[in-house]
Write a structure and sequence with these properties.
It is a single chain. This protein has 80 residues and is an all-alpha fold. Helix content is 76%, strand content 0%. It is elongated. The two termini are 30 Å apart.
């Protein structure tokens, strides 16, 4: 049995993106809270929350792709 290296590399790229977003999101939110008086407070805060949400989604998606690359695709459920 050989692992699927294409899926494995795609999963590693997604996990790398997750790590980047996992640091960027909280930094952007922190900067928004440091500048509550600024007119761009709400857009920057919303951007930080979106980055955090994307980070969580990309993390799950990357781990799912990694496991599919290492263990093979999930078996299909049989209809009874």
């Amino acid at each position: 049995y050989l692992m699927n290296t294409a899926l494995l590399s795609k999963g590693l790229k997604r996990v790398a993106g997750f790590i980047v977003l996992a640091f960027m999101g909280p930094v952007v939110i922190y900067q928004a809270f440091q500048n509550e008086w600024h007119p761009f407070y709400y857009p920057v805060l919303i951007l930080g929350l979106i980055l955090c949400g994307l980070s969580i989604g990309l993390g799950f998606w990357g781990i799912r792709t990694l496991t599919a690359g290492l263990l093979g695709p999930r078996p299909k459920k049989k209809n009874s």
